Amino acid sequence: MLYEVTIDGKNYRLDLQRVEVGWRCRLDGHEIQVDAVLTRRDVLSILVGGKAYEIKRERTATDTHLWVGSTRYLTDLRDPRSLRGRKGAGADEMGPRKLLAPMPGKVVRVLVSEEQKVEAGQSILVVEAMKMQNEIKSPKKGIVQKIVAAQGANVNAGDVLAIVE
Amino acid sequence: MFKKILIANRGEIAVRVIRACRELGITSVAVYSDVDRASLHVRKADEAYHIGPPAAAESYLNFAKILGVAKQSGADAIHPGYGFLSENAKFAQACADAGVKFIGPTAASMEMMGSKTRARQAMEKAGVPFVPGTSKGLESVGQAEQVAAKIGYPVMLKAAAGGGGKGMRLVHTPGELKAALEAAQSEAERAFGDREVYIEKAIRNPRHIEMQVLADEYGNTVYLGERECSIQRRHQKVLEESPSSIVDPDMRQRMGEVAVRVARAAGYTNAGTVEFLVDQEKNFYFLEMNTRLQVEHPVTELITGLDLVHLQIRIAAGDKLPFRQEGVRIRGHAIECRIYAEDPDNNYFPSPGKITLLLSPSGPGIRRDSGMYEGWTVPVDYDPLLAKLIGYGTDRAQAISRLTRALHEYFVGGIKTNISLFRRILTDADFQAGKVDTGYLDRLLKSKLPEVRGEDAEIAAIAAGIFAMLDPASTAASNGDAVAKPGNGTVRTGWKSAARAEALS
């Protein structure tokens, strides 16, 4: 299987194949011998060159992280052969990205307008919950395609707040 | 001995008290609000009764409902845990009036110690050293200015009815005093319904060291060692340990004897804690008394080998203390971390939600008092304390290494927790040297985060692919509570409605 993987913003090309003993893996062209066992849902034990790694997968409303030991990596995986790519949380970096509410709250401020150019990490709007304010940031550089949640709107976790393309 | 105890609380402390009941052969009765139906304390109890909607005032703080369940279940005693009704003198009295034993001190002791100014006045009478300042509420700005000039700046304005840092103001110069007093008074009014504010000399970089006391109903009072609780964020304790690095046996005895004097002056029975501020010359000053079992009691249990909840129950049932002061031995070192559902990367914003994966540590020297489980949804309505992780060892270094190892094993997926904060503290040189004070954590958090170089990014990339092939899932749908909308892939994770649905099922 061929994948495009982004780990903390860095892209990799991954070619994975199940073989009799373990996996054949090619990462950005170079071969790595991998022994991997799924010990339970979301927990992988990987052995590479005698080194052992415990990998935990964590998915929230907005993204996916993999933890290697105690270090966390923001992860995005795409199957380049799929026509539509994966939508929803962690969608195709090249296409429109949806900003989702990470928790229930109220939109208290909208900081940008539609068609405005934004940078990666720029604050798009502010959601208030439990008397604290949470800035929702753009995951990419682009243009605000649509602001879905209006100022004053109550939102649930996972609700689409805005779309940046 | 009691036949049945109602635990008027929730979360990890309710589980802890339920366990003590089971160990003593006492039937446990749990109470739960709408959002707590699926919680761990309900699962572990012998009996459980619904007491209302999530809001504490309509459930865990509601006298009538709690006492109603006591009557209905035939409970002969109530353990209040900490927080909620544990220091509510009116509730303690209501229990007495209803013929149900309140496991804790009397209403009169609580009342005396509940007001910080009244406590100071009583301590003055008992000859207990306390921080220079007023024992009565400030009556005017003029009086405040006079006292402040006498004791010397900087001074601390504090709410008499207060706690948790509310109604407190640190004042450095006479010019700031008037505005600070007005602000403290209105904050106190808003938070506690009582605008009484008093003044104390502000001690530079104090340590917060508290002494555990225990008294039976026959006048036998002992101290059980101190706890170092200086590591606080916004006046909330985050990590506690016992013993304190700066307290030697002589100081322990002197502080302990003062703590016992405080407890006696309050006519205190059952478990309580006397808090002290300790300055850089190791002078200690009475701060206040907490008339309840505290969150951090496990560290005291580990170094003394005593079970404080068993002792609370026995004392309330009329038993005499089974040991004397000479029989109390301190051995080893224990450190506790409070694991909260908070996001350390986002100003410790509460992070409720569903716990999708839980890998819990265990092994030598590790104690874990937890209210969470995999698949549980952390409610937004209450204090987000998930668990306490305690490391115990023969000495402080071993306690630190065991706790660090256990934190490495601890994984809570699906929500954010403050676990990474403890790794930072335990590896910090000042912490390891025992150089802490109440300003320590704020200073550490202001300092630059050590660069975490992701050396295993390639492993993560490979793992991402293997997960996709071995354990595929469509975004968050495998959480079990998501409703995927076909076509646009938006996932609505409505965890709050899922929790309600669970509660009603």
How many domains of chain B? The number is 4
Number of strands of chain A: 16
Average of the residue pLDDT scores of chain A: 84
Write out the CATH superfamily name of the largest domain in chain B.
Answer: ATP-grasp fold, B domain
List strands and helices in order, with pairings.
The complex is a heterodimer of chains A (165) and B (505).
Chain A: E1 2-7, E2 10-18, E3 23-27, E4 30-40, E5 43-48, E6 51-59, E7 64-68, E8 71-78, E9 97-100, E10 105-110, E11 117-118, E12 123-129, E13 132-137, E14 142-147, E15 154-155, E16 160-164
Antiparallel strand pairs in A: 1-2, 1-8, 2-3, 3-4, 4-5, 5-6, 6-7, 7-8, 9-16, 10-12, 10-15, 11-14, 12-13, 14-16
Chain B: E1 4-7, H1 11-23, E2 27-33, H2 40-44, E3 47-52, H3 63-73, E4 77-79, H4 89-98, E5 101-102, H5 107-114, H6 116-125, H7 141-151, E6 155-159, E7 169-171, H8 174-192, E8 197-201, E9 207-215, E10 221-233, E11 236-242, H9 249-265, E12 270-278, E13 284-290, H10 297-304, H11 308-316, E14 333-340, E15 342-343, E16 349-350, E17 353-354, E18 357-359, E19 366-370, E20 377-378, E21 385-393, H12 396-409, E22 411-413, H13 419-426, H14 429-432, H15 440-446, H16 457-470, E23 483-484, E24 491-492, H17 495-504
Parallel strand pairs in B: 1-2, 1-4, 2-3, 4-5
Antiparallel strand pairs in B: 6-7, 6-8, 9-10, 9-12, 10-11, 11-14, 12-13, 14-21, 15-16, 17-20, 18-22, 19-21, 23-24
Helix pairs in contact in B: 4-5, 7-8, 12-13
What does this 3D model show about the protein?
The complex is a heterodimer of chains A (165) and B (505). Chain A has two domains: 77 residues, Glycoprotein, Type 4 Pilin, CATH 3.30.700; 68 residues, Beta Barrel (OB fold (Dihydrolipoamide Acetyltransferase, E2P)), CATH 2.40.50.100. In chain A, 0% of the residues lie in helices and 59% in strands. Chain A contains no helices and 16 strands. Chain A has an eight-stranded antiparallel barrel with strand order 1-2-3-4-5-6-7-8. In chain A, a hairpin with a 2-residue loop joins strand 12 and strand 13. Chain A is elongated. About 5% of the residues of chain A have low confidence. Chain B has four domains: 100 residues, Rossmann fold (3-Layer(aba) Sandwich), CATH 3.40.50.20; 70 residues, Dna Ligase, domain 1; 240 residues, D-amino Acid Aminotransferase, Chain A, domain 1; 36 residues, no CATH class. Chain B contains 17 helices and 24 strands. An eight-stranded antiparallel sheet of chain B has the order 13-12-9-10-11-14-21-19, sandwiched between helices. Chain B has a five-stranded parallel sheet with strand order 3-2-1-4-5. In chain B, helix 4 runs antiparallel to helix 5, helix 7 crosses helix 8 and helix 12 packs antiparallel against helix 13. The C terminus of chain B is likely disordered.
